[in-house]
Amino acid sequence: MQLQIKLVEITIADLPQIQVIDQACLGGFWSLEGYLQEIERPNSYLISVMSREKVILGFGCLWAILEEAHITMLAVRPEYQRQGLGKYVVWGLLEKAWSQGLEWATLEVRASNLAAIALYEKFGFTVIGKRPKYYEITQEDALVMWRKGLHYPEFKDSLQAWHQEIREVITLRGWEIV
User: Which fold has domain 3-172?
Assistant: First the structure.
Protein backbone atom coordinates (compact mmCIF):
# COMPACT_ATOMS: atom_id res chain seq x y z
CA MET A 1 0.00 0.00 0.00
CA GLN A 2 1.21 3.50 -0.83
CA LEU A 3 1.99 6.04 1.87
CA GLN A 4 -0.71 8.68 1.65
CA ILE A 5 0.31 12.28 2.27
CA LYS A 6 -1.46 15.62 2.21
CA LEU A 7 -0.88 19.27 3.03
CA VAL A 8 -2.65 20.40 6.19
CA GLU A 9 -2.65 23.46 8.41
CA ILE A 10 -0.57 23.02 11.53
CA THR A 11 -2.42 22.86 14.84
CA ILE A 12 -1.27 23.04 18.45
CA ALA A 13 -1.37 19.22 18.62
CA ASP A 14 1.27 19.11 15.84
CA LEU A 15 3.81 21.27 17.67
CA PRO A 16 5.81 18.46 19.34
CA GLN A 17 6.54 16.97 15.91
CA ILE A 18 7.22 20.40 14.41
CA GLN A 19 9.74 21.18 17.14
CA VAL A 20 11.57 17.88 16.52
CA ILE A 21 11.89 18.75 12.82
CA ASP A 22 12.88 22.34 13.64
CA GLN A 23 15.62 21.13 15.99
CA ALA A 24 16.94 18.57 13.49
CA CYS A 25 16.91 20.92 10.50
CA LEU A 26 17.14 24.45 11.85
CA GLY A 27 18.75 24.07 15.24
CA GLY A 28 15.72 25.22 17.21
CA PHE A 29 14.85 28.29 15.12
CA TRP A 30 11.57 28.97 16.95
CA SER A 31 10.52 28.12 20.49
CA LEU A 32 7.21 26.50 21.40
CA GLU A 33 5.91 29.98 22.24
CA GLY A 34 7.04 31.21 18.83
CA TYR A 35 5.06 28.49 17.07
CA LEU A 36 2.02 29.17 19.23
CA GLN A 37 2.18 32.84 18.21
CA GLU A 38 2.40 31.86 14.55
CA ILE A 39 -0.68 29.65 14.82
CA GLU A 40 -2.61 32.50 16.42
CA ARG A 41 -1.53 35.26 13.98
CA PRO A 42 -4.19 35.94 11.35
CA ASN A 43 -1.61 36.68 8.64
CA SER A 44 0.57 33.62 9.32
CA TYR A 45 0.05 30.31 7.51
CA LEU A 46 1.75 27.16 8.77
CA ILE A 47 1.32 24.03 6.69
CA SER A 48 2.77 20.55 6.90
CA VAL A 49 3.06 17.43 4.81
CA MET A 50 1.35 14.80 6.92
CA SER A 51 0.98 11.08 6.41
CA ARG A 52 -2.30 9.26 6.95
CA GLU A 53 -0.74 8.03 10.19
CA LYS A 54 -0.44 11.68 11.37
CA VAL A 55 3.35 11.79 11.00
CA ILE A 56 4.59 15.21 9.89
CA LEU A 57 7.28 14.83 7.25
CA GLY A 58 7.95 18.52 6.65
CA PHE A 59 6.47 21.97 7.11
CA GLY A 60 6.63 25.60 6.09
CA CYS A 61 5.43 29.02 7.18
CA LEU A 62 4.33 32.06 5.22
CA TRP A 63 3.47 35.57 6.40
CA ALA A 64 1.03 37.64 4.35
CA ILE A 65 2.22 41.25 4.62
CA LEU A 66 0.24 43.67 2.44
CA GLU A 67 0.89 42.31 -1.10
CA GLU A 68 3.83 40.15 -0.06
CA ALA A 69 4.09 36.47 0.78
CA HIS A 70 7.14 36.13 3.00
CA ILE A 71 8.25 32.52 3.39
CA THR A 72 9.80 32.40 6.84
CA MET A 73 10.53 28.73 7.23
CA LEU A 74 10.83 25.44 5.37
CA ALA A 75 12.01 22.15 6.87
CA VAL A 76 11.74 18.47 5.97
CA ARG A 77 12.72 15.59 8.25
CA PRO A 78 16.33 14.69 7.32
CA GLU A 79 15.39 11.12 6.36
CA TYR A 80 12.81 12.45 3.87
CA GLN A 81 14.86 15.22 2.25
CA ARG A 82 15.51 15.28 -1.51
CA GLN A 83 12.35 13.30 -2.23
CA GLY A 84 10.03 16.07 -3.40
CA LEU A 85 8.44 16.94 -0.07
CA GLY A 86 10.12 20.34 0.24
CA LYS A 87 8.89 21.16 -3.22
CA TYR A 88 5.39 20.11 -2.18
CA VAL A 89 5.51 22.44 0.83
CA VAL A 90 6.80 25.39 -1.24
CA TRP A 91 4.03 24.71 -3.75
CA GLY A 92 1.49 24.73 -0.91
CA LEU A 93 2.78 28.04 0.42
CA LEU A 94 2.72 29.64 -3.03
CA GLU A 95 -0.77 28.27 -3.69
CA LYS A 96 -1.88 29.85 -0.41
CA ALA A 97 -0.26 33.15 -1.42
CA TRP A 98 -2.01 33.03 -4.79
CA SER A 99 -5.39 32.24 -3.21
CA GLN A 100 -4.92 35.23 -0.89
CA GLY A 101 -4.28 37.52 -3.88
CA LEU A 102 -0.69 38.29 -2.89
CA GLU A 103 1.52 39.73 -5.63
CA TRP A 104 5.05 38.54 -4.88
CA ALA A 105 6.98 36.26 -2.57
CA THR A 106 10.25 36.77 -0.70
CA LEU A 107 12.46 34.71 1.56
CA GLU A 108 15.93 34.55 3.06
CA VAL A 109 18.13 31.48 2.67
CA ARG A 110 21.61 30.64 3.90
CA ALA A 111 24.13 31.46 1.18
CA SER A 112 25.64 27.98 1.66
CA ASN A 113 22.32 26.12 1.31
CA LEU A 114 22.66 25.30 -2.38
CA ALA A 115 19.92 22.66 -2.34
CA ALA A 116 17.37 25.16 -0.98
CA ILE A 117 18.49 27.85 -3.42
CA ALA A 118 18.03 25.41 -6.31
CA LEU A 119 14.60 24.44 -4.99
CA TYR A 120 13.43 28.06 -4.82
CA GLU A 121 14.84 28.77 -8.29
CA LYS A 122 12.62 25.98 -9.66
CA PHE A 123 9.66 28.13 -8.56
CA GLY A 124 11.02 31.22 -10.28
CA PHE A 125 12.72 32.86 -7.31
CA THR A 126 15.81 34.94 -8.10
CA VAL A 127 18.47 36.36 -5.80
CA ILE A 128 17.97 40.11 -5.37
CA GLY A 129 20.30 40.84 -2.47
CA LYS A 130 22.32 39.66 0.48
CA ARG A 131 22.01 40.24 4.23
CA PRO A 132 25.54 40.04 5.65
CA LYS A 133 25.92 37.96 8.82
CA TYR A 134 22.15 37.47 8.96
CA TYR A 135 22.30 34.21 10.90
CA GLU A 136 23.28 35.16 14.43
CA ILE A 137 24.98 31.98 15.63
CA THR A 138 27.04 31.22 12.52
CA GLN A 139 27.34 34.79 11.20
CA GLU A 140 26.52 33.40 7.77
CA ASP A 141 25.10 35.63 5.06
CA ALA A 142 21.53 35.22 3.85
CA LEU A 143 20.54 35.59 0.24
CA VAL A 144 17.29 37.45 -0.31
CA MET A 145 15.20 35.77 -3.00
CA TRP A 146 12.15 37.18 -4.70
CA ARG A 147 9.37 35.81 -6.95
CA LYS A 148 7.09 38.29 -8.71
CA GLY A 149 3.80 37.86 -10.52
CA LEU A 150 1.83 35.67 -8.14
CA HIS A 151 -1.31 37.63 -8.98
CA TYR A 152 -0.96 37.22 -12.76
CA PRO A 153 -3.36 34.73 -14.44
CA GLU A 154 -0.47 32.64 -15.81
CA PHE A 155 0.76 31.98 -12.27
CA LYS A 156 -2.27 29.73 -11.72
CA ASP A 157 -1.14 27.71 -14.76
CA SER A 158 2.34 27.43 -13.23
CA LEU A 159 0.84 26.20 -9.95
CA GLN A 160 -1.09 23.50 -11.80
CA ALA A 161 1.98 22.41 -13.78
CA TRP A 162 4.14 22.29 -10.63
CA HIS A 163 1.47 20.30 -8.80
CA GLN A 164 1.37 17.72 -11.60
CA GLU A 165 5.17 17.47 -11.60
CA ILE A 166 5.26 17.08 -7.80
CA ARG A 167 2.52 14.44 -7.92
CA GLU A 168 4.54 12.44 -10.47
CA VAL A 169 7.75 12.61 -8.40
CA ILE A 170 5.94 11.66 -5.21
CA THR A 171 4.17 8.78 -6.96
CA LEU A 172 7.54 7.46 -8.13
CA ARG A 173 8.57 7.38 -4.46
CA GLY A 174 5.62 5.11 -3.72
CA TRP A 175 3.49 7.81 -2.12
CA GLU A 176 0.11 9.19 -2.98
CA ILE A 177 -1.13 12.76 -2.55
CA VAL A 178 -4.69 12.69 -1.20
Answer: Aminopeptidase (3.40.630)
